[in-house]
Amino acid sequence: MLRNLIVWLRMIKFSHSVFALPFAIMMLFLAGRDGRPGFPGWGKLGLIVWCMVWARAAAMTFNRIADILFDARNPRTAARALPTGQITRLQAYVFLYLCALLFVAGTYLFWRPIALSSEGPRWFGYGNVWPLIMALPVLLFICLYSYTKRFTWASHFWLGASLMCAPMGAWVAVSPPAGPVIAAPPLILGAAVLFWTAGFDIIYACQDIEIDRRDGLYSIPAQLGLSTALWISRTCHSLAVTFLLILALLTNLGLIYLIAVVTTALLLIVEHLLVRQGRMSRIKIAFGTLNGLVSLLLAAAAVCDIML
What's the total number of domains in the chain? Predict the structure, then answer.
């Protein structure tokens, strides 16, 4: 049982939830109460986490189904669960639809409550229909990323835009109906997440340059070469830090958050030093460990600033 659970968690890269979820929680506190910073309550926090987990699981499962043939041809990914038959395609499709259903159910609870009886306690229900309205478009957008590498080198930015949905979706889920549906803070943080994600995804794609060229896939490293790709990644990360600083000015985040932004810039510099001149043997540290620290650090600092 435990072994099967581990196989499923590895298929959806559950550990990579650390990239998007902290930014959703950070924006939850920035949206706060009707668009004003603060803690909006445990119910909304629980629903945000619920929706994030199932939306991400659906997108990753769709990605694994869409890329099964490419994964089987790539030595780095050939041992994944679907190419090796540890999980069948039918099982993956059933799991995909279940995840999508659970995500949509979570968005519904931002709008309508559920009750044990006609006179019993009411759970959730905040009168906010926007998460339900946006549920299917968001699912389609984050799933379609799986096909972008087949026709455009901008696939890295599509992935960034998919993670951008985390803070923007959190704002839409928490701010209305009393607060604005969209505002500058989620757009600015969303832009930071977009460029940060695109930057580290370009680095990640550098290890598959020859495979992508062989299979006709459009990654920036395969199309433009290693050196140019790394410079584009550095530019993306510079823009990400710039947007993080703009967010501080826009939302009056204080010293704790600013220290976290400076630390983030240093961590990104270390990331690029690790992979300079194509040192792909260090990519796991650069991709996973450092970027995980970035998201956790920024979210923790912002929440501390808001609550203090």
Answer: 1
Mind giving me the DSSP string for the chain? -HHHHHHHHHHTTGGGGGGTHHHHHHHHHHHBBTTBSS---HHHHHHHHHHHHHHHHHHHHHHHHHTHHHHHH-TTTTTSHHHHTSS-HHHHHHHHHHHHHHHHHHHHTTTS-EESSTTS-EE---S--HHHHHHHHHHHHHHHHHHHTTT-TTHHHHHHHHHHHHHHHHHHHHSTTTS-SS-HHHHHHHHHHHHHHHHHHHHHHGGGHHHHHHHT---HHHHH-HHHHHHHHHHHHHHHHHHHHHHHHHHT--HHHHHHHHHHHHHHHHHHHHHGGG-GGGHHIIIIIHHHHHHHHHHHHHHHHHH-
Whole-model pTM over 0.85: yes
Which neighbouring-strand residues pair with 122? Answer: 115
Residue for token digits 């581990």? 6
Does 194 have pLDDT greater than 80? yes
Alpha-carbon distance of 61 to 205, in angstroms, equals 20
Would you say residue 152 has pLDDT above 90? yes
Q: Which tokens is 239 given?
A: 């823009």
For residue 90, the domain's CATH number is 1.10.357.140
Residue 10 falls inside a structural domain: no
Residue 17 tokens, joined: 């939830």
Q: How far apart are CA 39 and CA 245, in angstroms?
A: 22
pLDDT in tens, 114-142: 765 566 566 788 999 999 999 999 999 99
Does the residue 6 lie in any domain?
no
Domain that holds residue 95: 18-307
